[in-house]
Batch of 3 targets.
Target 1
Amino acid sequence: MDTRRLNRLLLLALLVAPGVRAQLPAAPPKTPAALEESSDDPLGRSTPRGTVVGFMRAADKEDYDLAVSYLDTNQRGDSARQLAQQLQAVLNRESSIDLNEVSAKPDGTRQDPQNPNRNLVGMATTSTGGVPIRVERVQRGDNPPIWLFSRDTLRHVPEAYKDIANTPGIERYLPGRLSSKFLSRPLWQWFILLISIPLVFVLGSLLGRLLRPLLTAVTTRLLGRTEIDSVGSLVGPLRLVLLGILLLIGSDYSFTLLGRRFWKNLSADLIVFGATWLSLRLLGIATKLYVARLRRTGAWEKLALAALLGRMLQVAVLIIGVLTVLNLGGVNLTAALAGLGIGGLALAFAAQKTLENLFGGIMIISDRPVRIGDACKIGDITGTVLDIGLRSTRVRTLDRSIATIPNGQLATMNLENFTLRDKYWFRPTILLAHETTTGQMQAVLHKLRDLLEKDDRVESGTARVRFTGLGSASQNTEISAYVFATNPEEFLAIQEQLLLRILEIVESAGTALAIPLQSAYVVRDSVRFEREAKSVTVADSNL
């Protein structure tokens, strides 16, 4: 299935699901606790919101006998049904009731401490002023208390109805067929929705074309060269957000209270889904571009961390979007967040070692004690770093095997990075022959010091040459100097040239390196033979 078809199916599901949910004949959406509290009254009158929604649903179905059950009135028969019809017209045409703001608690909002059993749910605007719409909790006999439209509100309903009866509505100018209902909604509202969808698609495409050069310029400047095609994936989410905004604006022009609630809930869902979708796409593009930049700069050790952070941000955005939708649907997020906290704590204990290695890898990548390609010594392991992952680090040892070290252990081990040396220590010991005269020794010392001082590759300020002692068969001279080199290979080449120059200095002074004497005794037939062997010993330098 291609992306376009998937986007269309997602859009269709978002459009249909809220509408189907709104047509269910059940009570208004509540949390499980609210359902349990409102189960005392079969008509849903245990809460202010249940009373308002139940009345409007019954009136929209023209079941005015049932609608009268939501009124605190002594009228009966036709007069009561007429009062319910008038209240329906007032609430649909002139009220400012936001059903999402009406309390869904059995105790109401307790707006007035002097009269906690009365709640203001909205206002009805007339030519003579505003009429407050109130519900009041009453108790009849031994039955549980229920919320009904108050007597004060019902007393002003006939006057408010006469006022709006003289105000023509849009439906009076529409053909009769467009005023008929489909899924409890007038057909003209469904036609407006069908016209809005292609309009939003066109506007989304135009907005995408306008944003493409802007987003391309921004990403190119911040992250380097980018792909224009990746910006085109933002058109779908932009269309969904635009559709939600358009429906939110048009919801105020719906001429039924439940219609306004339906369109506002639908527009809120579309905006949240579209914003979440758009955020996921933006994070995906940003992650892709940043990873491409890391590849171009050779920062291989940061690739895994960048991909992980991108996924974590996308998961966080998705969770926020889901929680927002649940909150709009009336779900109590306190219990949900508490469950997520307990589940996260259990997961943290179960994956303790994995998390330890994960955070160890993040610390290594962020602090950068070693990088890919560095020669280092980690504990007892000496080699070159091949890869730094989120769970472990791989090292190519000197014998060409691969050692895998968990990042949790690596973070606590002693680590020596040879590649980060700014200079190398050159420290040979010269063993001159025992027959070397004082003049020859002074000549050698003078020329060695002159060599180290004039060579630009040697740190002359810390270089020293000292006659350190007399051996049994040699006169010892110690050289100590720091050589400027960026890697071991460069140091070995410089060291080789310096050693050759030292040999030339010794030869030019008329002396030679010491030749230690070694004696070997062989006994054969009680005859002892002594043979002397001469060998040349060259002091090994300490790298």
Note: Residues 291 and 303 are 6 Å apart (CA to CA).
Target 2
Amino acid sequence: MRRWLVEYPRGIPLAVFALIAAITALSVYAIETGERARQRAQLSEDAQTIASAIERRANSASAYLQAGAALFEVQENLSRETFGRFVDRLLMDNTHFGTDGIGWARAIAPTQTLAFEQEVPEVRINPPPPLGQRFVVPVTYLHPGSERNRRALGYDMYSEPVRRAAIDEALRSVRPTASGQVVLRQEGSTDAPGFLIYMPVFNAQGASQTLRGFIYSPFNSQDFLTAALKTVPRTGDTILLYEGPPGQQSLLAQVGSDMEGAISVRQQLTVANRPMELELRSAKPAPFSPMSGLTLLFGLLVASLLLVVVRLLTRQVLEDQAALDWLTEQDAIRDSLTRELNHRVKNALANVLSIISLTRRRASSVDEFADGLDGRVRAMSATHDLLTRSEWGATPLRDIIEVEMAAYMNQDDWNVRLDGPPVQLAPNDALSLGLALHELTTNAGRHGSLSVEGGEVSVVWEPVGSSLVRVTWEEAKGPRVVRAARNGFGLQLIERIVAQQLGQPVELEFRETGLYCTLLVPVRLPSDFALRARHRLG
């Protein structure tokens, strides 16, 4: 476990948090699943209750139609007055049953339409029956005789396919039969869906039965559903009644508005010998119970607490491991320090000996020798100070240039420009570049652009690939430059010692505008002393 905490200091706490969160989510899912099942069961029970209420309404209307059919079968002549007295004695409250009333439609042969209209002058059959039609079933009476109901008088119900199918089924089964979705003639120009229930009436007099017509009730679907729901407690759920498989085309009536994500159940029912389907949708979206909320909150609290605890344990383990690594690193640093000091001292002494040798050859007096040696040793000392501050790790190139040109920086007499990206140099390369810059600066101060007021020096560096940086020294607005028969000591120092230590050629050009020098400096990894830098950054 300790090894895992060290190898995955962030992953282990997150894994523990994710595990507890997953367990919490699973618990919430189980609770919500149970809550949905409970709500669905309640909806199913409510749907059965509503379906029963709708069927009772339809059965009540069917019972009145069956009673009327039994009465009219023994009536020799079914006049408007006889039909009206029958309906009045039913004492039926139309709004209570959700029906537009009770009607009588006589069944006649297509050849008898003229005689029928003469017998019942207030009725005109429409549309005219086509040739070959089995019979004509015009609306003869419709009680109550309101202006709305009078729109249906004379309409041949057998001429329309949906009504015709219901009439044929009623004849076949000899029982009240509901039609599919239609627009009642009473609706006029509106397209409110409705349906009708037909009950055939036969002539019981004589040896053979003959069809006399149909007693029927027209229903506005919305009014019918609203009347049926008056006998059941409402919960605010959405109720939809379909004449067949649920769909917008088969929708008869709807009470309530749709809810996105609501739970819904469906219930089959039979309305007057016709199968229909009821859909009940919950009045609210999918539930999120208080128990789920408490479980989720508790789970997140536990997961967060464990995340903090494991994070603290991980931090403690990492600190212990870091302490062990530090002790091991100190031993390595001590060994590296000894080797590095030997290497640096040898390099420094070799540079000093080379400088002394070249200076001695060019000096004509002890004072000249001492002055030349003093400046170059001071340049090495300034660069050493930068390396010491960086603990002999990587040193910024810009800092080296600024140290060597400090006497001419930010002065009104000269214009010194430095430009280039951040670049880090290894200690040996920093010493060599510092020595070269010292010689270039000294030469410019004695003979070049920095020896006159208004002189300009531009030092620009840019990466060359991934392992080199090109440093360009360019002078302008100084004295006219003419290359001597042989280079002075400083330029020889750059071309020999610096070029050899950097391992790259040095280009020197004596242009009319001033000295132009290009150095290629390796970009190397820091020395072993970077162990301390890594520990300090960590």
Note: The chain has two domains: 1-288, 347-537.
Target 3
Amino acid sequence: MPLVAELKRRNVIRVAMFYGVAAWVLLQVGDLLFGALGVPGWGLKLLLGLLVLGFPLALIFAWVYELTPDGLKREREVDRSASITGRTAAKLNVLIAVLLVVAIGLMLADRFLGGRPAATVQSAPAAASPPAGIASTAVSIAVLPFVNMSDDKANEYFSDGLTEELLNVLANVQGLRVIARTSSFAYKGKDVKIADVARELDVEHVLEGSVRKAGNRVRITSQLIRASDSSHLWSETYDRDLNDIFAVQDEISGHVVDALKIRLLPSAGPGPDTGGTSVPGAYEAYLRGRYQKNLGEAEATLRAALAAFDEAIALDPGYARAHVGRAEVLGILASNAYLPFDSGFAQARQAAQRAIELAPDLAEAHASAGFLLLAVDGDVRAAAASADRALQLNPGSSDVQRGFANFASSLGRHEVAIAAAEKAVELDPIAPQAHTTLSSALFSARRYEEAEAAARRAIAIAPSRPSVHGALGFSLLLQGQPDEALAEFEKESVEWQRMTGRALVFAGRKESDLARAELAAMQRKYADAASYQYAEICTALGDHDEAMRWLDNARRVRDPGLMSTVLVDPLLDSLRSDPRFDALLRELGLAGGPDA
């Protein structure tokens, strides 16, 4: 066709190709630079609009003008015999080739460098491995608690449970950094700005929504917001029967991943709901159990949680997550002496093992089993295998990282423990328990000032949270500040921690009568259940024979504090030169001392 031939002669087609490739490269570079410079989201849209407008202008320009040795001239003014369009075409071909190379390079970099997940490091079973990390380039999101819009406020557990389940599903998306539950739920009931939430949690995206439940019908509204410009990437409303709730969760999480347009992982999607259920009644009971468990460690709420998990299991005996919930609650009940050690931990072990049988890839099941294997059974190698397995399965879980930190600390692997605790804080930055875990790891490493700072951050977040004041009290005590430590112990809501702290302060101040009176009061209340704490107090009083007697008793009754703490406990340092102490460590399988 004459027109096509003329377009080729005037290099209009080559200009179109050059413009298209150059525009694509500019958009990719602009996307990178605009994000680094904090340019609002509309900046990239403006660049795209300008490039689109410029395209027809470039084609008109190429048609009307021609490049000559004397500069640009109108095409009709150029002598055909002196035309250099052939040389211009060759130069355009080179430029197009160069830009194509750049474009291919950008695509390869985005595909292979942008989304590489950090590797997990494995070790021999008896030695804790370093914590697995989350890729620094991961797209990040916080899921705010869905608001309960139901007329019945008792349905609060349902909206909270839906939020938590979405968190679990999204946490299985490789390359997506999901802020953990505690930090997300810190904003529950508060009128907050998305930009403030994103800044405090260091995330790029926020998912929020509401739930209205009436009988067997539920309406769920959700929206995904980009924090940089508060723009809505996606929103949707779902009207469903409760029988469809599992499909709704999958649908929402899938839409979130699609809306994020994760370039790092173009084929990524929500991971499977490992250990879940297809029975609506069991799921609803499980949500009630999680809701009660998350209220804290009061005996009444823990027993309500246990009853709800038992109901879920009765409705679906194969519900692995409900078995994990049961194991966790029973472990907490026994650890706080709300249940006898032997029966409480035996039931917890049975529930954790059943969860693993039902869902071998459920990280939380392995973490729960690992705690029992170490603290109760004293099986260091098996506990190490469980801790490593949990970390490999879900390194993006703050709870898994905290459990791994506690395990590593128990073996004296201080740097590994601190790194895992710091990762837990990164994943759940305003969770007080993440900071108390870090404080504990630092305390065991004898880094008392840093332990104090971590405990103070936990108190700033949740002043009434159990164990936060105790963590600060122990750090202050070991820094030679008994009066300040006593003030913190008096604020501690966990009674055995408060009484232990008071006795240790009195012993440190040489007020032996007061210390022994506090010790006697503990023995009347807790009998053998606080044997390990009695050993700490007797050590502070200088009564090493009595301290060793109580350590032997702690071993006999399987006090979880013994295996979890004895190797690294600074409060027992004056006992470490006693040959009987070395013999005890050998018998426990902890010979060799802490590996600092």
Note: The two ends are 81 Å apart (CA to CA).
